[in-house]
């Protein structure tokens, strides 16, 4: 514990915003991980059951979606299926509007991640600069014996630790952010696929039964 406190003291003031960034990053990563875990483990089954039920019993499909309304795809489907006798055009418009409403939730915290990824290395660089300034202020040119070796050592430690801290915060956040971005793109592709299947079933019901 004492060693960690000594490192924090060596880094200087820039350690505190970097520490704050790391706490925020971990908290948001856990929230997003839980969000995407829920989608990847439940969505496929809910969608397949809903599509299967809709062809035979639309009310049962609606009930299934309402039970899983915490999933984005369920809310999207509900926006269309809750419309009475919707034309194919209105049905598609309802789905597209619902998709647009879900995008901010799917991309939640992307801006925060990007900010942390961008600023952390710069804060580390700032610590490096202040460390170099400490080194230069401790060196007495022409009088090596009068050089403050303790100040030089502290400046070197500040420069190196600051750079390391900035990268330690930025690199894992970048990697995890890339994973979330990949999941978002995959989810948008899935939404288009599932939405197309639901539209097709809706058209077939209109053609065969003249009702939703």
Count of individual helical segments: 7
Sheet of most strands: none
Structural class: mainly alpha
Regions with little confidence, pLDDT below 50 for 5+ residues: none
Distance between the termini: 66 Å
Classify the helix fraction into a percent range. over 70%
SS elements, strand count: 0
Mean pLDDT: 85
Strand content: under 5%
Rg estimate, integer Å: 28 Å
Q: What's the SSE pattern?
A: HHHHHHH
Can you put this structure into words, describing what you see?
It is a single chain. The protein is an all-alpha fold and 212 residues long. It contains seven helices and no strands. Helix 2 runs antiparallel to helix 6 and helix 6 packs antiparallel against helix 7. The radius of gyration is 28 Å and the shape is rod-shaped. The termini are far apart.
How would you summarize the topology of this molecule?
Layout: H1 2-11, H2 15-56, H3 58-67, H4 72-81, H5 88-106, H6 110-138, H7 149-209
Helix pairs in contact: 2-3, 2-6, 2-7, 3-4, 4-5, 5-7, 6-7
């Amino acid at each position: 514990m004492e060693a960690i406190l000594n490192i924090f003291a060596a880094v200087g003031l820039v350690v505190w915003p970097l520490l704050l960034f790391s706490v925020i990053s971990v908290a948001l990563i856990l929230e997003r991980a839980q969000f995407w875990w829920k989608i990847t483990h439940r969505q496929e089954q809910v969608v397949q059951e809903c599509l299967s039920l809709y062809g035979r019993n639309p009310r049962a499909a609606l009930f299934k979606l309402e039970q899983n309304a915490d999933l984005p795809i369920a809310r999207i489907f509900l926006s269309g299926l809750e419309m009475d006798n919707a034309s194919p055009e209105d049905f598609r418009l309802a789905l597209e509007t619902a998709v647009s409403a879900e995008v901010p939730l799917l991309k939640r915290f992307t801006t925060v991640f990007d900010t942390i990824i961008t600023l952390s290395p710069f804060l580390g660089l700032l610590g490096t600069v202040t460390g170099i300034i400490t080194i230069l202020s401790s060196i007495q040119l022409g009088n090596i014996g009068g050089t403050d070796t303790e100040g030089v050592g502290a400046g070197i430690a500040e420069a190196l630790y600051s750079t390391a801290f900035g990268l330690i915060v930025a690199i894992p956040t970048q990697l995890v952010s890339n994973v979330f971005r990949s999941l978002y793109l995959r989810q948008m592709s899935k939404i288009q696929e599932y939405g197309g299947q639901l539209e097709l079933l809706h058209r077939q019901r209109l053609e065969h039964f003249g009702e939703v």
